[in-house]
Amino acid sequence: MNKDEPSIDLLNIVDEWKEKLRRSGIMYLRDILICTITEIMKILGTDDETAMQIVENASRLLEELMPEEYGTLKLKDLQELDKKRMFLHTGSKNLDNILRGGWASRELTELAGEYGTGKTQTCYTAIATAFLPPEEGGLNTGDISVAVIDSENVFSYRRLEPILRRFDINLKKIKDKLMIMKPKHTAEQLQTLRGLLPEIRKRNIKLIIVDSLTKYPRTDFSGRQLLYTRQRAIISMVERLRRYAINFNIVTLITNQVVGVPNQGKRDNLRPVGGHILGHNVDTRLLLTSIKEDIKQVKIIDSSWLPPQKTKIRITEAGIMDPE
User: Fold this and answer.
1) pLDDT tens per residue, range 233-269
2) pTM greater than 0.90
3) Positive or negative CA dihedral for 131, 132, 135, 138?
4) Cis bond leading into 212, ω under 30°?
5) DSSP 122-176
6) Which domains does the chain have, with CATH numbers?
């Protein structure tokens, strides 16, 4: 991150509050905008009106100091921001093609599907390709890291090794560049996501994976009477990830479970869980379904910028690739 980036020292608040923000990993004005009003209230122990004023002041300062990102943008400004977007090779040229380059930074991408459709293996492949140089479809412009929030508790180095070998990446050289976090419930998963803020800067995280986003909220808040609480937890996670992706130009992937919809055709009866919360807040949504054994279909079911398309991939020990 640029050393000249505006810090919280520019805020007209007491030193005690600045110290509380720093202890929470909030060092720069940009970090203020990543947090919600509720989070600022809790960190500072203040009311919502005061927290809102602090966020508004941070926003005003950023508009003055970084107008190319936070001011009123013209079409040419949007074009310049779009040029900064990075694309990560998925492991499959077929999938890269329908995504117009691969996994895109500055947005949140969802991989939904039944058990065994290759969601986790797709994420493993992204971990490997992230350490490739940009000219080979990776994100490694220097000293980067990858963060994995493993809510499914399935992450295994042994499963990752053959994928790394495929891309000629030495596990020993990247072992310290992988952050694997295994939250045990919804509250810990939320806290883990919030705790990534200082790590993003310190470790130069360029890929964040959450596998899976909805498992704990569905487990911890089952039943219609807890629907509001469940959806509130999900939106908190999604919004935090989107703000990371946009503000730090990060590739962000989440996996999701599916449910069957009655009175639909057999091929079209699967829908990602999470309802409108995910539908309105995820940038690109993919549905993975099985065709036969190792061959899967990947379909773009919704996107803010990509048309609906589908393709086939093959799931192998060495990651995802194109069918032969």
Assistant:
1) 999 999 999 999 999 999 999 999 988 877 655 556 7
2) yes
3) negative
4) yes
5) HHHHHHHHHTS-GGGT---SSS-EEEEE-TTS---HHHHHHHHHHTT--HHHHGG
6) 8-70 (1.10.150.20), 84-321 (3.40.50.300)
